[in-house]
Specification:
alpha+beta; OB fold (Dihydrolipoamide Acetyltransferase, E2P); de novo design (two linked rop proteins); 2 domains; five-stranded mixed barrel; 6 helices; 8 strands
Length: 238
């Protein structure tokens, strides 16, 4: 319905458009992913200042017309996450998290829990930039897949339900598999299985340290699950 829209939002991406405008991709709690144009924002006297940059959390005022592209009419900063902007690791971590979210949740459907997950991730990176690790990105993606309804099965064989002797991971089956069902899977050791379980069940701030081998295997499991069951192509972690 055309007219004014007020919503909380996080800026996922900001793209230069024309001589002075920007196209914003934002994520909102009740309207999902939206696109909007901010007219004249790149002029030195713009009333928006720099608050329409990526990773800002805002109270946005928009005008919804007939096109899919809304118009930004007002913006108030809730959090600029200034600390992460001064740390290259955290800034890269925020960019990768926003990119992952935008790939999984690319519609206008309401997912307030996903909005809260993103805000929690940005707050963690702002408070503790050292958390911007590959393990953090895998855990964030696991939680996105859980919210989307296609997180991998980790408690028992995804094919037959057997809870013991889980030896492999099958993206087609949707999770770990036992020795009897391992055809078409790749080998998954116990350490990587535990990490995937922790990544899904623990808070982002409470992840264990893991080595590059575990990260590579876990990344493969998450990426191939997303591609097979959600037609989502994540950017490579490593």
């Amino acid at each position: 319905m055309a007219g004014p829209v007020k919503t909380e939002a996080v800026v996922l991406r900001s793209i230069r458009y024309g001589e002075a405008d920007r196209i914003l991709h934002v994520y909102t709690p009740m309207r999902g992913k939206l696109s909007a144009i901010a007219k004249g924002v790149r002029r030195s006297k713009s009333r928006f200042g720099g608050r329409l940059e990526p990773f800002f959390r805002l109270n946005l005022e928009l005008h919804e017309g007939r096109s899919d592209l809304m118009t930004v009419t007002g913006a108030e900063t809730i959090s600029a996450y200034t600390t992460l902007r001064a740390d290259e690791r955290a800034l890269n971590g925020a960019a990768r998290a926003c990119d992952s979210l935008g790939r999984v949740f690319d519609s206008g459907e309401a997912h307030p829990e996903v909005f809260n997950l993103l805000c929690s991730a940005l707050t963690l990176l702002d408070d503790h930039p050292e958390n911007a690790t590959d393990a953090f990105q895998i855990a964030f993606r696991m939680k996105l897949l859980l919210a989307a309804g296609f997180a991998p099965q980790l408690a028992a064989c995804a094919n037959c339900g057997e809870a013991g002797e889980l030896v492999g991971f099958s993206p087609a089956a949707g999770g770990v598999v036992c020795a009897s069902c391992e055809a078409g899977s790749f080998e998954l050791d116990g350490e990587t299985h535990r990490f995937l379980t922790d990544a899904l069940g623990r808070p982002l701030a409470d992840l264990p340290s893991v080595d590059a081998r575990v990260v590579a295997l876990a990344d493969r499991a998450v990426s191939e699950t997303a591609a097979h069951h959600g037609q989502v192509r994540f950017k490579a972690i490593a």
